[in-house]
């Protein structure tokens, strides 16, 4: 069975306790369970990761590209957190591997501070889901499957 990689960037390990008025009360474990259920319903496994380190996320994107070329991975659902607004390296990793990526943000970054309005990830992404809470991950999985398999 092919899988979907779900990547989470910095501070997402604090979900449920960090600014719950912005990010909600669900934990990262809750998000993982939602993702596994959503992917399973569509016939896919989930590889779920979180890292506060940019290089580790780049390595995982490289791994995703290799697995995709072998037919083991459909693509990536990625919440890059604050790296969204700072990381040209993550953009380049996505472009360099040609892996389909759905960028997900729990909050509506465009309704927040102006420094959050620009994404280095978006130009490399296959699709973007913003501001729909943790349900955005489920929609990201569904969107990835629809986009890549149709």
UniProtKB/TrEMBL annotation:
Homododecamer. The lineage of its organism: Bacteria, Pseudomonadati, Pseudomonadota, Gammaproteobacteria, Oceanospirillales. The gene is aroQ. Belongs to the type-II 3-dehydroquinase family. Keywords: Amino-acid biosynthesis, Aromatic amino acid biosynthesis, Lyase. The active site is at residues 23, 105. It comes from the Bacteria. This is 3-dehydroquinate dehydratase. One of its GO terms (biological process) is amino acid biosynthetic process. It is an enzyme of class 4 (lyase). Substrate binds at residues 79, 85, 92, 106-107, 116. The record marks 18 as: Transition state stabilizer. It catalyses: 3-dehydroquinate = 3-dehydroshikimate + H2O.
């Amino acid at each position: 069975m092919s899988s979907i990689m779900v990547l989470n960037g910095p501070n997402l390990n604090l979900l449920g306790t960090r600014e719950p008025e912005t990010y909600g009360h669900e934990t990262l474990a809750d998000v993982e369970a939602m993702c596994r259920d959503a992917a399973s319903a569509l016939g896919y496994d989930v590889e779920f990761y979180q890292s506060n380190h940019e290089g580790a996320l780049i390595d995982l994107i490289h791994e995703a590209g290799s697995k995709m070329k072998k037919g083991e991975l459909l693509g990536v659902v990625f919440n890059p957190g604050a790296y969204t607004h700072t990381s040209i390296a993550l953009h380049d990793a996505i472009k360099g591997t040609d892996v389909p990526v759905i960028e997900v943000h729990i909050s509506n970054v465009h309704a927040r501070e102006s420094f959050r309005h620009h994404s280095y990830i978006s130009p490399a992404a296959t699709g973007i889901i913003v501001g729909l809470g943790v349900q955005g991950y489920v929609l990201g999985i569904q969107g990835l499957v629809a986009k890549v398999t149709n």
